[in-house]
TrEMBL record:
This is Iron-sulfur cluster carrier protein. ATP binds at G107, K108, G109, G110, V111, G112, K113, S114. The keyword Iron applies. The lineage of its organism: Bacteria, Pseudomonadati, Pseudomonadota, Gammaproteobacteria, Chromatiales. One of its GO terms (molecular function) is metal ion binding. Coiled coil: none annotated.
Amino acid sequence: MWFKWFKKAAEQSSSADGMPELLAKTLAEFQSSEFPMPLDSLIQQASFNSKQNSLSLTLKFPWSSLADELLPVLQQVQPNLTLELRSENAAEPAYRTIKQVILVASGKGGVGKSTTAVNLAVALGLEGAKTGLLDADIYGPSIPTMLGLKNAKAESPDDKHLLPKQAAGIYLQSIGFLVDPEQASVWRGPMASQALLQLLNETLWPDLDYLIVDMPPGTGDIQLTMSQKLPVTGALIVTTPQDVALADAQKAISMFRSVNIPVLGLVENMSFYQCSHCGEIDDIFGTNGGLELAERYQVPVLGQLPLQKQIRQSCDAGTPLVLNPAESGTGFYRAIARQLSFALYWNSQHQQAQQPDIIFTDD
Ligand SMILES: Nc1ncnc2c1ncn2[C@@H]1O[C@H](COP(=O)(O)OP(=O)(O)OP(=O)(O)O)[C@@H](O)[C@H]1O
């Protein structure tokens, strides 16, 4: 059998003849430029409707932009074919309705952790994942502003639970909806981690593939306690390439490893600046520091992001850059989102992370 789901696809097809053989063969032989494995191994289910000339694929992780690459190839052998892509996250829920919880952390402040977290969460949504974002940055909850909800307040349907807000295709909860940021920034470790747990616990999250948690910067007690108390699937480290940021990113990797949280990857933000007039590239914060750190610690680099005025402007305006497909930076975030989804899928298949026990208490 030259590919495993062909028979299944033929059986499930609404046509008596099943999927046309040439189409099935083309699909089976397709290899995306993005992942080093045949597409075949990333398909959960395939079905072809001959009356509608439509193909429906269920992928093992959210990857709706695959259509841009795949459909033109399939249409060469099956003219006018339409393609529907879905995904199924097979991971066991990390917490109630949430399949996987991902911490976005940085050792150093101001490296673009929140900007990366918000664009990444929205990009995951655009790739077809049901995504939530929990803003746990008690020192400066900036995500409400970045999603156009600056003055919004928490809402409760019953005085016990909280409703998540919805913006840019994702669900959002922030410590900034509940308390004055200046008040929260003086919280000590136990108070901060208790407040975060409550926020996670009391929010009426819908079924989610991913919950992205924007952590406060640093690697002190607060971050350690939060990481240990949350039902974490893995962590993503954001750094800039200069030495001071890398030293702190290194501490963050060590901190997560000390509590058995898998580091899924590293994102190097502000890696380069490209002049919008002459196109020349300048490495303002140094070159490839993140890549070297990642190699030393055997952590995958999920992407390098440019220092770009539009990234800052769009976040200040409450509409993350990734929502605008015309912007050149969008592709970087979408690619990182796919790499992250793939890493999560791969880890869930190949690793049983040692999770800390999560205990919720009322005190
Ligand atoms: N790639 C980028 N290009 C241009 N500006 C950026 C980029 N990434 C982040 N910024 C800008 O840098 C500033 C700091 O970013 P951000 O708030 O995301 O950092 P942070 O690491 O979350 O900070 P904090 O330590 O306060 O949590 C913001 O004004 C943001 O718009």
